[in-house]
Amino acid sequence: MSNLNHQVLRTAEFWGADPANFEIVETHLSWVFLVNDLAYKLKKPVSLYFVDTTSLENRKHFCQEEIRLNSRWAQPYYLGVETINGEADEPVLNGDGEVLDYLVKMRRWSPEQQLDHQSLETDQAAQLALRLSQLQGQAAIAGVDLPYGNPTELSIPALLNFQQVQPVLTERHDLEQLEQLSGWADEALKRLWPRMAERKDRGRIREVHGDLYAGHLLLDDWGFQAIDCVEYRSEYRWVDVISEMANLVMDFEARGQQAFANRLINAWLETTGDYNGLWVYMPYKAYRAMVRAKSALLSLEPAKIERETTLAPIDLYREYADRAESYTQVPQRFLIITQGTIGCGKGELSNRIVEQMGVIRLRTDVERRRIHGMAIDAPTDGELDAGIHGNEASDQVYQALAQEAEEILRAGFPVMVSGSFLKRRQRERFERLADAQGVYLVLLQCTPPSDWIESQVHDRSVLAHDRSGANLNILQHQRQETEALTEHEETFTKQIDTSDTQAVETLIDGLKQLLQPNYG
C-alpha cells in the first residue's frame, strides 16, 4: 500500500470509527474502509493491462476522475477526494505535511440496495429506463475530433476477444463455436459499418458509465442511482448508449430476469425514441456476452452473479459463449396491432406480450406526446376532435408509427403496435406494411365486458384526480367512431377478453406457437 503502514489503516481508531461499524473490503484494485456511515476507497498501486496506479500522481488522478464521473450518476454517495498525510508509520487523515495517498470519500450504502440483491417488479423497468435515459441524455457527446465510436475503433476489441480466447480452448466444440462467432462478428462489423458511423453522427456516442450492470445500480429513497463508473479506461465509457443498454439487458437475462429485461429495453426505447439503435443492438449484446465469456475463461475479474462463483472458468465461459451465439440468431419477425377503446386493457395485454415474447412495442399515446413535444408521461387534453386527438393529428401519429415499425422490422425485430386502431384506414396502413415486409400480421381485438371497461376508465380518472368525466366522454366518442372490421380483416384477427387473465395467457401461448415456436 505505497509506503503507508498498512496496519495503522486497518484499525478503527485511525478512522475514528466504532469498531462495531468498521469493516475492510478488498477488491483487485482497491481497499475500501467502511467507517460508520461512510466509506473510504484507497486505490492499490498496481500495474495491469488496463490501468497503472503505481504512482501517487496517477492515484490522485483516478480518485478525481472517480468523483467527477460518479457525481453525475450517484451524486448523493460520492462526496470528494481526501488525503492521508504525515509520516508513513503515523499517517493522519486530512492532516498536514506530505501527502502519502489519496482517498475517495463516499456515503456508505447497503448491499441490499443494489439491484443484484433485489427482485424487481417488471413495472419498475419504466422507472429505471427513465432514469438511465436522463443520465445518458446529459452525458458528454463524442465529437468528430474524438476516435470513440468510429467503426475501426469498435472492431479492434470485438475481434481481439476471439484471438485472446482461442489459445486457451482445447475442446473441438468450443473451437468450432468460436470460429463461427468470430466469422459472424467479422461479417456483422462489415455489414453495419455505415450504421455505426451514423450512430456517431446522431450524437449517440457518449461518456456514459462503462460497466453498467445490476450490481452497479442502487434503489434508494431518491430513486435509481448508478455507482462505480469506470474511471480508468476512457474507451470503456465513451460508447454507444445502446451498447451500454445491451450490457445491462444481457446482465438481467443472465440472472434469469427475462421479463424485466424485455420491459427495460422497451421502456428505454419508448423514452428515448432511439429505435435506430436496434440496427446495432444485437451485435452489441453478442459482443458484451463475449467479453464476459473471455473474462471468465481468463479469470480477469470476479463473477458478477452469485451463482456463477461456483462454476469452473470453462463452464462459465460456455454459458456466455452460448448466450453470445443466441444473440446471433435471426429472430422471427411479425407484426401485431391492437384494436380497442380506452380502458379496454390493451396496455396491460401489450405488457404481457412484451414480457413473454420479447417484441419491440410502439404505443400511440407515447408517439402522440413525442410528436407534440410533451413528456411521454404527461397528461393529454380531453378534446375529442381537436388538438392532439383530432383526425389530422391522429393520422400523423399512425404515419409516424408505421415508419418506426418499418425500421424496426427491417432491423430484424418483431413489432407490436398498441393503439386504438378504430379507423379502417389506420389498420390498412399496417396491413400494407406487413405485406411489404413479408411478415405475418395479427390484429388483437380487445373485447372485455362493457362494464369492466367503464370501471377501468373511472379508476383512471380517480387516479388522475379528474372529476370532469372527460375520459368517459372519450370512451363514448370512441365507441361511436369505431369502424367495424371487414371480412378480410377478420381472417387475421384474434378476439381477447382482456379482463380474463387466463384467457390472456392462453392467447399468448397460442401466439408463441404460431409466431415464434423457438423463442426462449
Annotation keywords:
520 residues; alpha/beta; 20 helices; 48% helix; globular
Name the strands of the widest sheet in spatial order. Answer: 1-2-3-6-4-5
How many individual helices?
20
User: What value does the average pLDDT take?
Assistant: 93
Main β-sheet description: 6 strands, antiparallel
Radius of gyration, Cα only, in angstroms?
26 Å
- The amount of beta strand, in percent, is 15-25%
* Gross geometry: globular
Q: Roughly how many Å apart are the termini? A: 48 Å
How many beta-strand segments?
15
Which parts are unreliable, with pLDDT below 50 for 5 consecutive residues or more?
none
How is this fold's topology laid out?
Elements: H1 6-9, H2 12-15, E1 22-26, E2 30-35, E3 38-43, H3 56-73, E4 78-87, E5 90-93, E6 99-107, H4 125-138, H5 151-165, H6 172-191, H7 193-201, E7 205-207, E8 217-220, E9 223-226, H8 234-237, E10 238-240, H9 241-254, H10 258-272, H11 278-297, H12 313-327, E11 334-339, H13 346-357, E12 360-363, H14 364-371, H15 391-410, E13 415-418, H16 424-437, E14 440-446, H17 450-463, H18 470-481, H19 487-490, E15 493-496, H20 501-515
Parallel strand pairs: 11-13, 11-14, 12-13, 14-15
Antiparallel strand pairs: 1-2, 2-3, 3-6, 4-5, 4-6, 7-10, 8-9
Helix pairs in contact: 4-10, 5-6, 5-11, 6-12, 9-10, 9-11, 10-13, 11-12, 13-20, 14-15, 15-16, 17-18
Description:
This protein is α/β, with parallel strands linked by helices. The chain is 48% helix and 15% strand. It contains 20 helices and 15 strands. It has helices at 6-9, 12-15, 56-73, 125-138, 151-165, 172-191, 193-201, 234-237, 241-254, 258-272, 278-297, 313-327, 346-357, 364-371, 391-410, 424-437, 450-463, 470-481, 487-490, 501-515; strands at 22-26, 30-35, 38-43, 78-87, 90-93, 99-107, 205-207, 217-220, 223-226, 238-240, 334-339, 360-363, 415-418, 440-446, 493-496. The strands form 4 sheets. Strands 1-2-3-6-4-5 form a 6-stranded antiparallel beta sheet. The protein has a 5-stranded parallel beta sheet with strand order 12-13-11-14-15, with helices on both faces. It is globular. The protein starts with 5 loop residues before the first helix and ends in a 5-residue tail after the last helix.
